[in-house]
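Dear V.,

Thank you for sending over the compound details. I've combined the ligand you provided, adenosine-5'-triphosphate, with the protein sequence from our construct and run the structure prediction for the complex. I'm sharing the raw inputs here so there's no ambiguity about protonation or stereochemistry in the SMILES, which I know was a concern on your side last time.
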Amino acid sequence: MLRLTGITKRFPGVVALDGVDLTLHAGVVHALTGENGSGKSTLARIAAGALAPDAGRIEVDGVARTLGSPKQALALGIVTITQEPMLAPTLSVAENLFIGRLPRRRMRGIHWTKLRADAREVLDRLRVHVDERRAVGQLSLELQQQVEIARAVSSPSRLLILDEATSSLSQATTSRLLEVVEHLRSRGVAVLMISHRLHELYGTASTATVLRDGRRVADVPLPSTPESELVRLMVGRELRDYYRKRAFEPGETVLAVEGLRSRDGMLRPTTLRVRRGEIVGVAGLAGSGKAELGLALGGAIPSEGSVRVHGRPADLSQPRAALASGIGFVPDDRKRAALLPTRSVAENFSVAWTGELTRAGLLDLRSERRRVAAAIERYDVLTASPQRRITALSGGNQQKVVLGRVFERDLDVLVLSEPTRGIDIGAKSEIYRLMQERAERGAAIIVISSEVAELLGIADRILVFFRGEVRGEFPAAGLEEEQVAHVAVSGVPRERAA
Ligand SMILES: Nc1ncnc2c1ncn2[C@@H]1O[C@H](COP(=O)(O)OP(=O)(O)OP(=O)(O)O)[C@@H](O)[C@H]1O
Ligand SMILES: [Mg+2]
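Below is the predicted structure of the protein with adenosine-5'-triphosphate bound, written out as structure tokens.
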């Protein structure tokens, strides 16, 4: 269906793709894997007509083409879903679903009744429970993603490109999307799928192309290639010690939360304590209140209740106040809250310590430059230069800056929401190591994650949220993923259910 040959793409200071070949067939799900910054999104954008290659050949159905624009690619039936919804916030759900192909009445503009009926049909078929008249900007991120998926899969397509489309979806929405993908595949659609969750690729794709530093290192058949082999191809070395367990010596209570609840009702009164050196994992489905726990502690949503850090009352009225109280928060939505998108990598790092460096009244440029260089090295950020705009980095590398910026401060409490989203398997273990290091140096850490395996690997204790409150609490050692899933789904610990 699509054949890319010898694709090369350079950006200032980097060769993002170097002579890459990729062939996609109708009715086949083809995975694209590689570390952060290896060139996956760049290749996907070239296949989607969003980016022109510097060299190479593109053939659609055996005919050489230039995919001049996403519109032209769309006309050829090439549809993309990415991690961040690209919807028009002020338009309704129905308009977003059919944007660019709105049903029209002769001479009289948009056929609103038909638009609504068509939208309803698509939403019902995909079991998206939302009023088609609502403005998209008013919906939760989860619903926006569902609308985005509905839009993509309802447009007539021959090639569907998923660039980390599942990385911020709940498990339920992920499996619904993967069902739809399988349905489209069986009807002859070609699929290109990028995901850092290897189990999703193994369950869905039949072949994988591995990129490393912009080069294609291998094409492998999927179910028959062991995961360890795939990872070795991606990172170029053996990866052991994935999670580094350490002996946890409980210290004094650092964070004491009592009756904390969010004003929107999603988080019901919650009481918990986190001790010095402890990592507490928080699990739960979408809408369980686990996200709101993070947002409330980070001062990002209005909340009530008592929160103390080392016995001192924390002010959670706004993010800056929470930070001043010693609570560092990394939200799961880096676009919304975490990055300074128009600034450089260096500037994004230096907000972590500017207070310190300017204390003398003057910014010490040399020590500033040295610290930025050290941070880029420590967090293994792939960037052509510290002056590069943060948004020019690959998704995973942006996430490393977001985390590094918080780790660089000497904070008593760290609250990390989906910290390894979009991070490749090699960089993940590095981030777990950094988390443990922060814990060992005395921080109390809360990790909120929808990946239970990750929580079991790094946390000392696991809390499971259900309908806004903690319904299960377990030491992580020896805990099975199923036990956590059981509480997350039913709200009842297994022992009591039996
Ligand atoms: N618009 C751009 N301007 C400059 N450099 C870019 C731009 N887009 C990508 N790059 C660079 O090209 C390289 C490949 O990036 P790409 O986004 O394709 O990686 P990726 O494999 O998708 O990584 P990730 O897993 O982190 O999403 C990186 O070094 C990145 O910094
Ligand atoms: Mg990418």
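A first observation: Residues 171-186 form the longest helix (16 residues).

Warm regards,
I. M.
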